[in-house]
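Morning F.,

Quick status update on the modeling queue. The single chain you submitted on Monday has been processed. Sequence for confirmation:
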Amino acid sequence: MSNQCGKLYVVATPIGNLADFSFRAVDVLKEVDLIAAEDTRHVRMLLQHYGIANRLVSLHQHNEETASAGLLDKIRGGLDIALVSDAGTPLLSDPGMPLVRMAKDAGIEVSPIPGACALIAALSAAGLPVSRFIFEGFLPRTSSARKAFFKERLDCESTWVFYESSHRILDALKDMSQILPAGRQLVIAREITKLHETIVKRRLDEMLELVESDENMRKGEFVVIVEGAVIDKNNQELSTEHLSVLKILLNECSVKTAAALAAEITGARKKVLYQAALEMMGEAKG
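Structure tokens below.
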């Protein structure tokens, strides 16, 4: 693998099961001049398993801006370098973007070596629509920021996906339950490819109850997949979430006040909400 100018390989590594590693990935890691790893100690176990003896350098979130420039110089000097993260495909909520960006901007060839990815693995087994989906990475750390995040996605019609840690999965679901309707379908995939792999599909209210009651459902690494909003075909301008908010407000407020508050909360048009509120009141009286 020697050229006048080297090459950067972006290599996906197993996310749990060491057998999920391609022959091509093994060959690349054996033949490159250098492996840039998120955690050299972690990756060394994988290399030992496959009999790979190669030089490792550290490239993690705290040094990648400065270290990437040095690695780029080495590639320009003719070295081939492989970029790996601790698990899965680099750059997907893992370090590596500065190095790949610099390499592309410098006209250096960047070659992906595909393999394990928790996001794609979870989607493939979720049983929710995947022809269109949005990946959101990790959620914000504070409750207020998470709730704002969920409000922004309340009417998103595509399936959306995020990663979450064991320390925050329950809090995230509690926050979600205050914003999304209880009947929204969720899939939680935890410990994918590992011994305790679990992929569960439930309504939001049922999922919250499950995670609260089962300690095991609060352990491991999580991919959370959320069903997109379903638009009410009888009123194309209002989603089921809009109507749900409006219905709750009508139990406490006048039609005019409920419509105004629902418009402020959801961002939908007040005039349309007012008309829907009148229809709801008429149906209730009937």
